[in-house]
Amino acid sequence: MSAPTSISDTSFHPASSDSIAKRNAVVLAVAMALGGSSPAIVVSLGGLVGQSLASNKELATLPISLLNLGLALGTVPAAMLMRKAGRRIGYMVGAGIGLAGGCLAAFGIAAFSFPLFCLGTLIIGSYGSFNQSYRFAATDTASEAFKPKAISWVMTGGLVAGVVGPQTVIWTRDAVDAAPFAGAFLGQATLAMLSMIAVSFLRPAPLGIASSKAGGRPLIQIVRQPRFIVAAVTGLVSYSLMTFMMTAAPLAMIGCGHPVSAAALGIQWHILAMFGPSFFTGRLIARFGKGAVTAAGLVLIALAALVGLSGIGIAHFWTALVLLGLGWNLGFIGATALVTECYRPEERAKVQAANDFLIFGSVAVASFSSGKLLSAGGWESVTWLVFPPVVVALLLLAWQQKTKMIAPA
């Protein structure tokens, strides 16, 4: 029987397939540029809208937490859908979900309904669970040598998203006179619709040789591997700490007397820093190794916290956000590359879903606790809590390097 044609189901990895891998990486980069703007819009405005709609101001960042909860909850259903229907159909469905979520969030603002707005951001988050798998989809047809570059190519689409998202906020936030900020979420819905067109150009992999072990090893056996634990923890720490600081930063800036436009531009510079290094992160991994690049990202995240502790001027916030973005890029792409070493082709879908569920579940907790901690202890308390997880992750990477456990699955 022929092997399935879904990208997610093939085991086709010869170097000759890189022509398709490169095309798909470009398509996914375009989709990332469009769909990747959604989190920027929610992060920039979620807390501000929450403050205006929520009766309990401690719940101001709940919409952002629900964005990340949607990411976590959507990972497994998204993986199951794409395994059955293929990447292209799955991503088109995901874009439709993003379109619906943006419209619902805008309606929630217009109706002065905090629950509806929160439901909209939750749905937008589930759209993000599809977008986050773009980085893995780029490796499905890539040779081992091209995998880190394929991930980097896709992540460069976030560089465009780093401009599109905040600029959508700036240009459309007052588009609906009776409902401030609703226009930005209608803009997000439009971008999701455009991403649906982009992913329709995704190509499936050539027919591969079906594995004799269709299900692969049990998931519990795979996730108990020391190398998977290290890869998942470093990815979790990189993404959670980035979200932890980024969620609090706009509210902290406004609380310190800085204007909304400065907060939005700070997020824009942060997102540019998140994705800008993707042009050369793959080369850095090829030269210095996955572990070293991941460790460098964690160190940059710690430096961002140090800058955050040093002052509350616009320059301090923006510098911290830029360092935070750079650290996320190196840490998260490095950790993603580490994860790709932990599974066989037939195990790809379930391991990727498990990894992202762990990461975005923790990110949801980080974003919600960030708002509560900011309200209770201020910006300084947020930045101090960055250091312990960074130390733990660095120790795990050092231990892995010492025991030389990075070996093919």
Automatic annotation (TrEMBL):
Check the record and name the PROSITE patterns matching this protein: MFS (PS50850)
- Matches recorded under Pfam families: MFS_1
Q: SUPFAM superfamilies in the record, alphabetically?
A: MFS general substrate transporter
Record carries keyword Cell inner membrane? no
Residue ranges annotated as transmembrane are 25-48, 60-82, 89-107, 113-130, 150-172, 178-202, 228-254, 260-280, 292-312, 318-339, 351-369, 381-399
Write the record's keywords in alphabetical order, separated by commas.
Membrane, Transmembrane, Transmembrane helix
The keyword Transmembrane belongs to this UniProt entry's keyword annotation? yes
Q: Which GO-annotated molecular functions does the record name?
A: transmembrane transporter activity
User: Gene3D superfamilies this protein is in?
Assistant: MFS general substrate transporter like domains
Leader peptide range in chain numbering: none
InterPro entries for this protein: MFS, MFS_dom, MFS_trans_sf
* Highest rank taxon of the organism: Bacteria
The residue ranges of the Major facilitator superfamily (MFS) profile domain are: 227-409
Query: Which PANTHER family would you find in this protein's record?
Result: MAJOR FACILITATOR SUPERFAMILY PROTEIN (PTHR23534:SF1), MFS PERMEASE (PTHR23534)
Q: What is this protein called?
A: Arabinose efflux permease family protein
